[in-house]
């Protein structure tokens, strides 16, 4: 399985070895490259990820801590969703993690936007629905979605 993790930081340094997948990472801040896997980290924006990765090249995309921390406008969120849809394989899993507060989610974060993804409950222990709120002071939430086929163009 191939995984793309978007949004590296010091608290993610151990993710590549914990997740038993071919782990790739993407972050626009060059200083965060030290936390990505050697040879599989890309410096660039989540809103342009299809410039770096082929279409349908990942089984899982995790975008954690980018909404409200760089992707601050609704148009940026929509571009992120389109880009995730492009790089995910059919029926691939998208995981969005964000802080559900007005300053970090100033717009509705909707997994079902434009029907690109169907909300889904993944087989993760303790996760019982497609929206999983963490019991923490950050109001951190994870949304899970399965990639739907591309919408037909008129």
UniProtKB/TrEMBL annotation:
Q: Does the keyword Transferase apply?
A: yes
InterPro entries xref list: Methyltransf_11, SAM-dependent_MTases_sf
Q: Name one GO biological process term.
A: methylation
> What top-level branch of life does the organism fall under?
Bacteria
Segments crossing the lipid bilayer: none
Q: Which GO terms describe its molecular function?
A: S-adenosylmethionine-dependent methyltransferase activity
Methyltransferase type domain location: 43-96
| A family per Pfam | Methyltransf_11
Record flagged with keyword Nucleotide-binding: no
Alphabetically sorted, this entry's keywords are: Methyltransferase, Transferase
User: Per its record, how is this protein called by name?
Assistant: Methyltransferase domain-containing protein
UniProt lineage: Bacteria, Pseudomonadati, Pseudomonadota, Betaproteobacteria, Burkholderiales
């Amino acid at each position: 399985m191939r995984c793309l993790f978007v949004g590296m930081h010091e608290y993610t340094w151990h993710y590549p070895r914990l997740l038993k997948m071919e782990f790739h990472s993407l972050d626009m801040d060059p200083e965060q490259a030290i936390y990505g896997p050697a040879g599989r980290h890309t410096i660039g924006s989540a809103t342009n990820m299809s410039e770096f990765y082929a279409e349908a090249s990942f089984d899982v995309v995790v975008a954690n801590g980018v909404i409200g921390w760089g992707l601050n406008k609704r148009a940026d969120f929509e571009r992120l969703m389109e880009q995730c849809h492009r790089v995910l394989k059919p029926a691939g899993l998208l995981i969005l993690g964000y802080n559900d507060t007005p300053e970090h989610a100033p717009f509705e974060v909707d997994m079902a936007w434009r029907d690109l993804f169907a909300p889904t409950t993944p087989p993760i222990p303790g996760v019982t629905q497609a929206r999983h709120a963490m019991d923490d002071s950050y109001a951190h939430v994870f949304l899970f979605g399965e990639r739907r086929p591309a919408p037909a163009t008129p």
